[in-house]
Design goal:
Elements (H helix, E strand, L loop, with lengths): L3 H6 L5 H16 L5 E2 L11 H13 L2 H5 L8 H15 L8 E4 L1 H13 L5 E5 L6 H6 L4 E5 L10 H7 L4 E7 L11 H18 L4 E5 L22 E6 L12 E5 L6 H15 L6 H8 L9 H16 L12 E2 L8 H9 L3 E2 L1 E2 L9 E4 L4 H19 L2
Parallel strand pairs: 1-10, 3-4, 3-5, 5-6, 6-7
Antiparallel strand pairs: 2-8, 7-8, 9-12, 11-12
Helix pairs in contact: 3-11, 5-11, 6-10, 12-14
Bound molecules: pyridoxal-5'-phosphate.
Pyridoxal-5'-phosphate binds next to helix 6.
Length: 396
């Protein structure tokens, strides 16, 4: 008999993927250049040339078994040391090789982290708006994801609601900063308050509460934004990093778990990740991609286009009277829809070939997400269309 759970999940496919599929189909009809596809968070800027060079050099330098063989379960030891050194240099935390576990990007880092710090039935709290894939990432581990309502004022943490939802069953808190979909980075003040609160709750409950920090957008931070490194605030932090967005290599599936050396049982967590891997069939990312990434460890793609696009869209949304919080990073913006029903709003926008994602699956009704990892030229061409849509449909 086939699994009922996974069969049922087929009936609730990702809204984002469904809309991206629609945009593609529409592109076949009218030409993709005429579809303003703001759906997918797929990086639009090329990988740094150094990454391609590293691949070429590695294939020339190393034998086939080193390039294409299995790496040790926690990842290539040299690569882990290079990453630990880089984090230490940049953020002042004394990471060592033993604190780094190589993963197939952030999705896999999160799958490992949550399994290491929860038992089935434990609660994991996250904050709306949140990346909808957290539902399968967390719930399939046996832990239960609960979502703290948003602070729509500025999309920092809603501490009042958080306090209400906190209870002894919570073993982990999952945050994502800079955030998909709001684009907001948690400020130093927010992270300090969060850390103080978690330290107090650990004391009260007599058990650790781990902070799982999902950081695929750590390097995409805009001018003037206060976007500090999470782990410096709270010892029991497990950072989940991905090179998908910073190096524009989402298809290569590479990232890592970095355990704060001061975390409880810090030396156990990477060996435990290895055991998790055995159970979920992960078994280490590609060897050659690990090595190529290590050669570009402090590099990023040219990410400046995202800030250019953000400013164009933000100014336009403000001009047209949208309520919108200015993003501090990522390549997302999250304005309030012009009617309560965000699905209806996005359906109407579709008639103008403006493809936005309604906010319901992000845990906040009445908003929509625009992923602006597209050409600036296309963003510019979309602005008069947006203006026309708002004028014709909402009379603004
Ligand atoms: C917030 C967030 N977390 C995790 C992921 C997973 O990305 P990856 O597994 O490619 O690192 C994404 C992808 O868009 C994301 O936006």
């Amino acid at each position: 008999m086939i699994s009922k759970k996974f069969k049922d999940m087929c009936n609730t496919p990702s809204v984002i993927r469904a809309l991206a599929g629609y945009a593609n189909e529409r592109g076949k009809e009218i030409g993709y250049e005429n579809v303003f596809d703001y759906t997918l968070g797929n990086p639009s800027v090329p990988v740094p040339e150094e990454f391609n060079k590293a691949l070429r050099d590695l294939t020339a330098e190393l034998p086939s078994s080193a390039l294409h063989g299995y790496s040790p379960n926690p990842g290539n030891p040299e690569v882990r040391s290079i990453i630990a050194e880089s984090l230490k240099r940049r953020f002042g935390i004394p990471y060592e090789q033993k604190h780094i576990f190589m993963t197939s990007a952030a999705a896999s880092a999160l799958a490992h982290a949550v399994r290491c710090v929860t038992e089935p039935g434990d609660e994991v709290l996250t904050f709306a708006p949140f990346f909808p894939e957290y539902n399968p990432y967390i719930n399939q581990s046996g832990a239960v994801l609960k979502v703290v309502p948003a602070n729509t004022e500025d999309f920092q943490i809603n501490f009042e609601a958080f306090e209400e939802m906190m209870n002894e069953k919570v073993q982990a808190v999952l945050i994502n900063t800079p955030n998909n979909p709001s684009g907001i980075a948690y400020s130093s003040a927010t992270l300090k308050k969060l850390a103080d609160f978690l330290y107090a709750k650990q004391e009260e409950y007599g058990h650790e509460i781990f902070l799982i920090s999902d950081e695929p957008y750590r390097e995409i931070v805009f001018k003037g934004a206060d976007a500090p490194y999470v782990s410096t605030f709270y010892d029991n932090t497990i950072s989940c990093y991905s090179y998908s967005k910073s190096l524009s290599i989402p298809g290569e599936r590479i990232g890592y778990v970095a355990v704060n050396p001061k975390a409880k049982d810090a030396d156990m967590l990477v060996p435990m990740c290895v055991q998790v891997s055995r159970g979920i069939g992960h078994n280490c990312p590609s060897s050659i991609i690990q090595m190529a990434t290590a050669r570009c460890v402090d590099m990023t793609s040219d990410l400046s286009v995202y800030e250019t696009n953000m400013n164009l869209l933000y100014d336009e949304f403000v001009k047209l009277g949208f309520t919108v919080v200015k993003p501090g990073g990522t390549f997302y913006i999250f304005p309030k829809a012009l009617e309560d029903d965000a699905v209806a709003f996005c359906e109407k926008a579709k008639k103008y070939d403006l493809i936005f994602v309604p906010s319901d699956s992000f845990g906040v009704p009445g908003y929509f997400r625009a992923a602006y990892c597209i050409d600036t030229e296309k963003v510019k061409r979309s602005l008069p269309v947006l203006e026309k849509f708002v004028k014709e449909v909402y009379g603004k």
